[in-house]
Write a structure and sequence with these properties.
The chain is α/β, with parallel strands linked by helices and 423 residues long. The chain is 31% helix and 21% strand. The chain has twelve helices and 20 strands. A hairpin with a 7-residue loop joins β19 (408-412) and β20. α2 packs across α7 (184-196), α3 packs across α4 and α3 packs parallel to α6.
Amino acid sequence: MEKKKLDVVLGLQWGDEGKGKVVDVLTPSYKVVARFQGGPNAGHSLVFDGDSFVLHTVPSGIFRQGTVNVIGNGVVVDPVILMEEITAIEKMVGDVTGKIVISKRAHLILPTHRMLDAASEAAKGKSKIGSTLKGIGPTYMDKTGRNGLRFGDILSPDFLDKYNALKQKHFGLLAQYDFQYDITEYEKQWMAAVEALKRFPFIDTEVYVNHLLDQGTPILAEGAQGSLLDIDFGTYPFVTSSNTLTAGVCTGLGIAPSRVGKVYGIFKAYCTRVGSGPFPTELFDQDGERLRQIGHEFGATTGRPRRTGWLDMVALKYAVMMNGVTDLIMMKSDVMDGFDTIKVAVAYKEGDRIIEDFPYDGGANVTPVYKEFPGWKTPLSALRRFEDFPEAFKQYIAFIEKETGVKIKIVSVGPDRDATVVR
């Protein structure tokens, strides 16, 4: 008998693709939703019954009845942010103690990690990365430097000694910066949150997830950020500190590559980016501002205006290849309803050279080569069947499918849970 495989949903651009909504739509088919990397710098926005909610650490299956939500070992967790999130969720749906499990191997973001993040970013001046200052980078640095604290350590009798030793090490690092800080208040909240989180099981999630798969339990792994922010294959150094690709599922949950089934790749019908870094199709004109305003392109975590641009097929094909995407999901198509002409970058130009593969530097000095499409000039948000889509929109979909070699299985035509067309 063939063993059950785990399915994956992840973003194919620079994050903010709409993963939260898609996971929420897909979860009725899954008993378990597992986050495999990233930290509270990601904001997954869910909209249902007229309410909206932003999740930062808790997997997006939390609002579905009977779903267990796994915070995997590849995730870095700020206990304060996690407890605030859980408190807000419980106000809406009641007690979630039986719905969340946390890997003992997941690393803790300390108050001093946040200070190190802010001090390091301030010192970079003009070359800053655009960090959300949540302490993610310094926490992953401690993880790879083998200094980190993990959830399993909370249960150890010498937890406070371990905590204080790492805190002192951080104070030493902070002394190198001209940076004023005070962690007293946040540290109190942090310790209280650590205590409060003890009501959730801290478990060996790698054993847990593999056992569930052996029993035939359907599991969905949920990524944070986007493929082009991957530490190895993204637009380095303007990236996050973890592997955001499908490969990160294996290391972030503890499963073998052979246990990965479907890979749902999510992308917007256009592109956005938050923070610094190359963005070949970025628009600085009225079209860019229209996309920002109509698409409400402001960061779910930071509120920062997102940079906007046309769909980048060079980058999208790269992300599809790197992730082994089996099903594409297109978001926010309705944002472009009013455009007369829609452009897609099909290649880059650098001097006289045409570039068709995503470059090492993420296209820092390239000019996009565009293909133009007629706009569909039809409100998509009321449509619920693929057959009812306007011809121009169907052509846009067909072009993307031909270029990527992957079917677009789901088209989102609005923020609400039901504004979703499944083919």
